[in-house]
Task: structure prediction
Amino acid sequence: MKDLIEQLKDIYIKKFCKYNKEQRNNINILYNNYKDNSIYGDINININSIFFLKKKNKNKLGIKLGNKIKKKLKKYVYKYELKSNYLNIFLKKKYYINKIKKFIKSNFNIQKTIYNKKNKKKRYIIEFSSPNSNKPLHLGHLRNILIGNTIANIYNVIGFNVIKSQLINDRGIHICKSIIAFKKFFNKKIKLNIKGDHFVGILYFKFEKEFQKEIKLISKKYNIKKNQAIKYSRLSKLVNNELINWEKKKGESISIWKKINKLVYKGFSITYKKLNVKFDDILYESKTYLLGKNFILEGLKKKIFFLDKDKSVYFLYKKKKIILLRNNGTSLYITQEIGTLLYRIKKYKKFNLLIYVVGNEQINHFKVLFEIIKINKLLIYNKLYHLSYNTVNFLGKKIKSRYIKKNEFIFIDDLICIMNNYVKHKIKKKKSDKIVEQISLGAIKYQFIKINPKKKIDFNINNVLKIKGNTGIYIQYTYARIYSILKKNNLKKIKFYKTNFLKLIKKNEISIIRLILEYKTIIDRIIKKYDPSILTNYIYIISKKINNFYQKNKILNIKNIYKRNLRLIICKIILNFLYFNMKILGIPILKKI
RNA sequence: GAUCACGUAGCUCAGUCGGAUAGAGCAACUGCCUUCUAAGCAGUCGGCCACAGGUUCGAAUCCUGUCGUGAUCACCA
Result:
């Protein structure tokens, strides 16, 4: 059974744009949750496209459409009004009552009521996080993870088959830097009192520090520029040799590499666990990069790629050379990326969309990658999407390891720690550490998801530390409030059939239900725009509405049993609805706060 | 220099692929706890939607230009 919005759309299409696809996509029919319903009605139909047909007759055509709707949907529609550019539909209370009954029938199952599972065959692969294995996850990863995880969860809600995929960049020069530091500055001794990934991070930063020192010395000594000084750097040579050793699997390179990676992965898993993020699939570039190398060599034979004078392999993109293989035969970022994609094609065979959640600094990288796939006539060309988001800036600049100084933190673990301390001090009643952490995690996640991925985040600890107003805590608090009411009254004892909802239901109760009916539109918009922030905003509006209702109306302590039943039912719907969406957003659910 | 984003209230952000009177939160100031969780609710204050043109019945939204901020510009990953 189609829902009302879809039915209205059908009538509209039949009447005005049966054959015009473009206009069909522009039809704008929405529940009115933002303006006075007694004036603007329950559903607003934007009739601009009618202007397209005949400007002069817009009123006539509007009335025609209104009459048709009233006739066809007389069960629910009792009135329509033409106002400005809108055809406003006024609904009977019965419509909302039926919706409430539907919720009751499904035992308050949000998924069943709003989305009936379909499309299970459609497979979506979502790659997110993609860390390097040389340092802990930082705030850039945090944004990435939260966007990726939320989008993945939403695809899941609709009923698609979703694969959350993590690609770990576990090979390359950056790892070798940690390896050298481990050998040279730490005598191959692991510090056990530090979380694994942080320890490896320390190795990496130690290397960078020493490296910069050396470069400075050389450039001063010989009076040359820094980038030229690299040629004479001893540490740089050591790293390059380490990479060659690693590729040849010589010496202790591999064993130390394995040891370091193990530490890092252990550290990652703790952070992921805290964030409550799980992956269905983990890929390692060390295992896929050879596939890419072979692919490029084959392309060279097919004359899709070319050999440069210095024997490096390149690809022409917009008349510019893009290097695909170094002249010494070792592979690059793009090489690995191709390899990983080939691996995925082999493993999953068919998928509808592969979404790369990667920062916007790599827009060009993905353009090149997709072009390479297209030019090689691989059929998946249309099934690749780069979900790019803006950077997380710290002190005005993009977060990069070289910006880290003492007393500055950019790691997820540190942020959680700081937030925990803050919540602990701000909180009125004493709470267990577990609850404190769940509150701070909710706050952090909400604060990051809240912002449109297109916009950059200038990270400021004071923004995250907010616990009033539009925050994760507000959502958690709303949930806990309603939960405590329902806990005091066992819903199962209520006999629904005795309640005459039609007489009891009032404006404010209807407006809550109407808000929930908008959910489908919201989800559609999120999928269309790849923007999870839409969901946080929506959940916030719902929370505000229910808090307002809570404060103005008594729910448990009223004499009229039937009225109480109705309000409890609405509470139960909202409770499950919040639960459902908090799960999607990954905000911890607390029964008490 | 080129390319791509973004510029909305003092601050942090919404704004439905052009439509009804530009919306929230924070901060500041008022009210509201002997009654279901006051981490809340109700209200006041605050806007030349960066600037200038253009497109049309109609622009915060589309186009062009200018300014500002950031990212990228290829053998780092």
Notes: The first helix of chain A runs from residue 4 to 16.
